Amino acid sequence: MTGTAEWRETPGKSGAGHARTQWDRTAPRGGGGPGGDERRYGYRPYGGDEPRYDHRPLWVEEPARRHPVPDPVRAAAVRAVLVIAVTLILAMVAFLCALAGSWLAFPMVMAGVAGTVVATWAAVDVWVTRQVWNQRHGVISEPSSTARALRRERRARRREERAARREQGRIRRRGGAGQLSHS
């Protein structure tokens, strides 16, 4: 069984005449075998003595991943989100002022229009910043990338051609002019 804990009988008798039991420590925790929830918490019964509990850490430290978006692009995106949020608030206030018949309706509509222009600029800024970053730093190349495989093949061909030219040069320098037999 893969993916479940293994329950195995061990030779020997405990006080009540039952075979001693324990879980295989190499098997993954959780599910499978008698005890259900007890297994998830590392319960390991042995005959006679008190049950022993394996203490596990609450969490496992993992190395930090790189951010999926470069820093300049993330900064531009945060700016854009803030500007768009303010613009939406301005539009909502303008709408409510217009419903109420307030004198602030016209200035708020003008502020909303200006905010829309700035929000559009902020959204375009995110796109431009991403394009500039990709152009300067290149796109992420994965091992399965076809471009990387083609470059690898090209380099291997060039290496073979250089090796063949060197070998031809050695043969010519020896004066053999390509002779393979001794005569």
SS elements, strand count:
4
- The first-to-last residue Cα distance is 71 Å
- CA-atom Rg in angstroms: 36 Å
Mean pLDDT: 76
The low-confidence parts are: none
**Given the structure, what is the number of helices?**
4
Q: Helix share of residues?
A: 40-55%
For the largest beta sheet, what order do the strands appear in spatially?
Answer: 1-2
Decide which structural class fits the backbone: mainly alpha
Query: From N to C, what is the helix and strand string?
Result: EEHEEHHH
Biggest pleated sheet: 2 strands, antiparallel
In terms of DSSP E residues, the strand content is 5-15%
Overall spatial form = elongated
Description:
It is a single chain. By secondary structure, the protein is mostly helical. The protein is built from 4 helices and 4 strands; from the N terminus they run ββαββααα. The strands form 2 sheets. The protein has a two-stranded antiparallel ribbon with strand order 1-2. A hairpin with a 5-residue loop joins β1 and β2. α2 packs antiparallel against α3. It is elongated and about 105 Å long. 7% of the residues are buried.
